[in-house]
Amino acid sequence: MFEKTFHATHPAMMAGASNGDLRDRYLVTGLFRAGELVLNYSHGERFIIGGAVPAGQSLTLPPHSEPDSAAGQPLLSRREMGVVNIGGGAGSITVDGERFEMAPRDALYIPMGSRDVRFEGDSARYYLLSVPAHRACALRKLSLSDITPMRRGSLETGNDRSIFQLILPHTCASASLCMGMTILEPGSVWNTMPPHVHERRSEIYLYFDLGEDDRVFHYMGHPDQLRHMVMGNEEVVISPPWSVHMGCGTRAYSFIWAMAGENLDYNDMDVKDICQLC
Ligand SMILES: O=C(O)C(=O)C[C@H](O)C(=O)CO
Ligand SMILES: [Zn+2]
């Protein structure tokens, strides 16, 4: 049921890794295909990373296919999920009969125990992230207009951006998923500058709102041994807990960040000084 399984990696595996090795280990592509629901699996925090593009049809979360003890059970029987509509048009998500209209950039938190989850919409594109959960929190829709963003950076330093915390304890209760969206102002290109590491959580970035010919130069690895990966629109990068994660685009863009691990504390991060990087 998973298109690809991404394995957990050791920091020592960065030495000698080719650009192709990095892309194979950390880059998730092909998530958004018309008429399909695509799921990938990462052993880092056991994230499921997916995309659903209904293109006029109705797409449903599949049940577990294995092991035998779980086969046929709902995918979210022991998991929670965050969804964002990154498409240009509205759609709807129906969870066990409760229907939510999903305007572009709306998010939905779907709790553990949800059984029937359907995605619809002609031009909606849903980004899906799921992690194991130990409790069921409330099903909840979140719109950017309900959230006061954190403003960070400046146009002068090319990193003027708004950080919307969609799923965090003060906005939406979850068992272990943290999720948000960061939107860069026109003329700004750097995200997460200065960068940070958080040993107790892994993080996943999805870059979007880029043109077809635009790219983000995403940096990862140990702060004093940075590597980069060239990423296009609607591509995802997995950041292990030992890795920085930051990027510079050829124009302004947006990205969705999602984390899980030891805690739900957004501020549990070790911010690096730019002079520490090389
Ligand atoms: O632009 C930023 O800065 C971010 O959005 C950083 C992410 O929220 C993050 O990496 C949280 O750990
Ligand atoms: Zn981070």
From TrEMBL:
Binding note for cofactor: Binds 1 zinc ion per subunit.
This enzyme's EC code(s): 5.3.1.17
Gene Ontology MF: a single term: 4-deoxy-L-threo-5-hexosulose-uronate ketol-isomerase activity
Keywords recorded for this protein, A-Z: Isomerase, Metal-binding, Plasmid, Zinc
Cofactor(s) needed for function: Zn(2+)
Reactions mediated catalytically: 5-dehydro-4-deoxy-D-glucuronate = 3-deoxy-D-glycero-2,5-hexodiulosonate
Known pathway: Glycan metabolism; pectin degradation; 2-dehydro-3-deoxy-D-gluconate from pectin: step 4/5
Gene Ontology terms: biological process: D-galacturonate catabolic process; D-glucuronate catabolic process; pectin catabolic process
Domain of life the protein comes from: Bacteria
Pfam families in the record: KduI (PF04962)
Enzyme class: isomerase
Binding residues annotated for Zn(2+), in chain numbering: 196, 198, 203, 245
Family affiliation: Belongs to the KduI family.
Role description: Catalyzes the isomerization of 5-dehydro-4-deoxy-D-glucuronate to 3-deoxy-D-glycero-2,5-hexodiulosonate.
Entry-linked PANTHER family: 4-DEOXY-L-THREO-5-HEXOSULOSE-URONATE KETOL-ISOMERASE
Protein name: 4-deoxy-L-threo-5-hexosulose-uronate ketol-isomerase
